[in-house]
Each structure stands twice: as C-alpha cells, then as structure tokens.
C-alpha cells in the first residue's frame, strides 16, 4: 500500500494506492477510487482496499481540508477572496476528484474508473461523475454507501419542523462566526466525544477501536483543521444527491445500513424508485452510517461483486 502526494492547485493532496498486480490480478486499465465522508479520511477504508484490489488498482483520497491533505483557510460564498483561501463546497471536491482521475489515475494508462463514496463522499462521487461525463469521460459506475441526504440544505427547509424553519436565519448567522466554530470544533475533537459519536454511527459496536479514534482525531490537530469544518457547516445551498442522480446516466448502486441514525433508509428507497440510474439498493441489517468499516466482512464481498459487474465494455 503506497501513500503518495499529488499537488493540486497549490495544495498537497494525500492519497493511497493499492496495485492490483500485487494480488495476482490482471486488470489493466481499471481503477476504483474511494472517497471518505465528513470528518474522516482515506484511512477510513482501512478494511476494504486490499479486498477491492482483486478487481482493479484501488485508490483512496483525502479531500481538501481533511486527513493529511492541505487545510487552507475557508471562504464563504459571500466573503471576499483572500490569498490562499478556498470555498469548501461540492463543486470544489468534485473537481478535485475529477482532476485526480485525469492527472493521476488516467496517466497510469487507466481508462475505466468506478467511484465509491460514503456519506458526503457519496455526493462528491456523484458530482465528480457529472463533471467527468460533461467532459466526455464518463465513469463506469458509482457506488453510494449511506450517501449524505443533507437535510439542513435550504432546498429542504420546508421539510423541517416550524421551529427549525424559524430559527434557521439565526443558526446561519452563528455558524459563520470563526471564533464560535473553532471553539465548537475543539470541543468535538476530543476522544470521549469521538467515541460517543462512533457509538451512534456504529450501532453494532464493531470495529470501534483505538486506531479508528486516532484516525479521526489526528487530522484535527493540524493547523487549519477547523477551516473545512467551518466551510462544510455553512453549506446551506449546495448540491443534493437527487439533483445529481437526475442528471446521471452512469449506473449507480447503493449500500445502506438499516440502522443509520442520520440518513434514513426511506429516502434511499425513494431514490431507488425515482431515478433510472439507480440499479440496486442493498440494505445491511444492524449496521449504521459507515458499514464498510463497521462490517467489512459483509460489505467487501458485495463491493467486489458490484465492481465486477460495473465495468463497461
């Protein structure tokens, strides 16, 4: 397993590559790229990469602002540009993934790509697939694992209870404040809090270990770590998965933990019935928001099968 650096738009992007040839596979021209969720990193695929490498060369990338990638200062949509600042959003991350394919993966003589995304990584994967399709470089398949539904987006405000609707302007004004967000970030980036959140995300309790806690906490100690947090919590008007699914002809398959505390299964079922690109929805009983890490013994065979089915001729 190789950990490498890609220089993108003046930033350092960390990624991992597992070569298919090391597993005795001969799958030239094929790659799989795994995209982590909010607060996670490429290491969150710790139990999956080697298994998936039986089908193709496998990459896992740290999105800008996360993991070991650069963490530039955040700039909200209506804030003036300052040197080195970025607007954290799904177009930024989608473009990052699309250009990573063109600059890194494709230069390795790889013409076929499948994307796997967990949580917000699912939205990033869908947006990257849209960007690449518009450039005539459509990916072969997108696999969503408990894709983020982004219920706090303003486009979904009417679905919220009336008190939440009435207090939204106040919430939006507060989370803009860097001092407040930095204080909140420091409170959340503590081992006890991380373990508490993991107990919600991993309802079975499997694989909540010291390595996982450290994996999530280590990036939070780096300079600028609170900036992507500030950028993300201010995304009140950005891409929603249904918007992207409506645009895609790329095959999409979805994997969902039945006990995901944050992304209701009912919404995933609605996507399956509403969008032609969705080929399949597989529900994993008893698992939560990150089933690939909570139950890799169940997830890896499914992903291997789907990846095998997903290559275009």
**Proportion of strand residues:** 15-25%
Give me the secondary-structure category.
alpha/beta
Q: Can you tell me the CATH architecture?
A: 3-Layer(aba) Sandwich
Spatial strand order of the main sheet: 1-2-4-3-5-6-7-8
**Uncertain segments:** 22-26
Domain module tally: 1
Distance between the termini: 28 Å
CATH class: Alpha Beta
Please write the string of helix (H) and strand (E) elements: EEEHEHEHEHHHHHHEHEHH
Give the number of helices.
12
Q: Considering DSSP H and I runs of 4 or more, what fraction of the residues is helical?
A: 25-40%
Rg measurement, Å: 19 Å
CATH superfamily: Alpha/Beta hydrolase fold, catalytic domain
Q: How many strand units? A: 8
Question: How does the major sheet shape up?
Answer: 8 strands, mixed
Mean pLDDT: 94
Q: Which fold name is given in CATH as the topology? A: Rossmann fold
Shape: globular
Account of the protein in words:
The protein is built from 12 helices and 8 strands. With 313 residues, it is an alpha/beta fold. The chain has one domain: Alpha/Beta hydrolase fold, catalytic domain (Rossmann fold, 3-Layer(aba) Sandwich), CATH 3.40.50. Strands 1-2-4-3-5-6-7-8 form an 8-stranded mixed beta sheet, with helices on both faces. α10 (265-274) links the parallel β7 (252-257) and β8.
Question: How would you summarize this macromolecular structure in one to three sentences?
Answer:
With 313 residues, this protein is an alpha/beta fold. 40% of the residues lie in helices and 16% in strands. The chain has a single domain (2-310), classed as Alpha/Beta hydrolase fold, catalytic domain (Rossmann fold), CATH 3.40.50.1820.
């Amino acid at each position: 397993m190789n950990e490498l650096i890609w220089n993108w738009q003046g930033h350092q992007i960390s990624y991992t590559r597992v070569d298919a040839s090391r597993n005795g596979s001969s799958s030239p021209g094929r790659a799989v790229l795994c995209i982590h969720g909010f607060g996670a990193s490429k290491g969150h695929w710790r139990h999956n990469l080697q298994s998936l490498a039986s089908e193709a060369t496998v990459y896992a990338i740290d999105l800008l602002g996360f993991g070991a990638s650069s963490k530039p200062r955040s700039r909200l949509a209506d804030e003036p540009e300052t040197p080195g600042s970025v607007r954290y959003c799904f177009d930024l991350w989608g473009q990052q993934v699309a250009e990573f394919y063109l600059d890194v993966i494709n230069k390795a003589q790889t013409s076929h790509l499948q994307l796997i995304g967990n949580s917000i990584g699912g939205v990033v994967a869908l947006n990257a697939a849209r960007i690449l399709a518009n450039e005539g470089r459509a990916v072969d398949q997108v696999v969503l694992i408990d894709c983020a539904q982004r219920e706090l987006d303003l486009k979904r405000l009417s679905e919220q209870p009336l008190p939440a609707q009435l207090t939204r302007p106040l919430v939006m004004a507060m989370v803009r404040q860097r001092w407040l967000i930095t204080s909140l970030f420091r409170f959340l980036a503590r081992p006890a809090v991380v373990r508490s959140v993991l107990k919600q995300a991993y309802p079975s309790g499997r694989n909540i270990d010291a390595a996982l806690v450290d994996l999530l906490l280590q990036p939070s100690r780096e300079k600028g770590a609170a900036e992507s947090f500030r950028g993300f919590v201010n995304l009140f008007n950005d891409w929603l998965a249904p918007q992207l699914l409506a645009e895609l002809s790329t095959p999409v398959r979805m994997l969902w933990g039945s006990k995901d505390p944050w992304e209701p299964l009912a919404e995933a079922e609605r996507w399956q019935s509403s969008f032609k690109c969705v080929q399949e929805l597989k529900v994993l009983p008893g698992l939560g928001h990150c089933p690939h890490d909570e139950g890799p013994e169940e997830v890896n065979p499914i992903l291997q099968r789907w990846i095998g089915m997903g290559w275009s001729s």
